[in-house]
Amino acid sequence: MVSSTTRRKRPIPLSRTRPPTARANHAALSSKATRNLIRSHHRLLKARAQALQAGDEILASEIDAQIRENGGLESYQLASKLGQSLDRGGDSSKALVDWVASRLRPLETTPYKLRVLEIGALSTKNACSMNRYLDVTRIDLNSQEPGILRQDFMERPLPKSEDDKFHVISLSLVLNYVADAAGRGEMLKRCVSFLTNSSPPGSSIAIIPSLFLVLPVACVTNSRYLTAGRLEDIMFSMGFVLSKSKQTSKLIFQLWDHNGDYKPKVFKKDAMNPGKTRNNFAIVVK
């Protein structure tokens, strides 16, 4: 359970880490162009966060201009949508639906659905949205279509009741977008506040609250500051146990079940894998 101290601490809005949007160029993009656009966007976003942290508003504004020249957040989202198309590797939420399929079977004879919060949603027609046993709430900072609420998860009001919470939270290629390592830790902690194991009234159906996490594989396998073991330690301290996992050449998919055993612990940005070719992705928990 999250302590009252953690709940009172105001989280850093995601909008502070994201640059202004610009009109996207909707011309077709090749797989290579898609990857290059996403990587360039992340590099600029990281540089912008560093400039803001150093208090250099002029440099941050210059980087904003570069981001706009590249099409802004809308172009990034377009590239992400293309990356999730069938000819580019498919919809990541299919893994989520496959993994929770056995948990949905008891719902087949009831009108009850599992409540899902999809953070950073890009489509209302992905696998989890089309499953009749999932009631999906979709949010994103820059909503691209009706059915996706324009909202910053870090500013979403904390739940006032169990009915305001969710059985599953999806963070598919969202945590890596947060430019600040400490912000990533805050996002994971905040997810705990939104999970519930509440079952239908008068029902004996067992509900397992879960977090679906998708990251670029390099964030875990080629970082100076994060390993699979460190990630598991961080998640375990928040009450998560790894239930399912799979890895492709580009992505790592994980389903973390929450057991309610929250044990706050500090994780600093410790160098564990030194090397010139490694990246600086990290998760800091304060």
TrEMBL record:
Subcellular location: Nucleus, Nucleolus
Protein family per UniProt: Belongs to the BMT2 family.
Name listed for the protein in its UniProt record: 25S rRNA adenine-N(1) methyltransferase
Basic residues composition-biased segments: 1-11
Positions bound to S-adenosyl-L-methionine: G120, D140
Enzyme nomenclature, EC number: 2.1.1.-
Enzyme class: transferase
General function of this protein: S-adenosyl-L-methionine-dependent methyltransferase that specifically methylates the N(1) position of an adenine present in helix 65 in 25S rRNA.
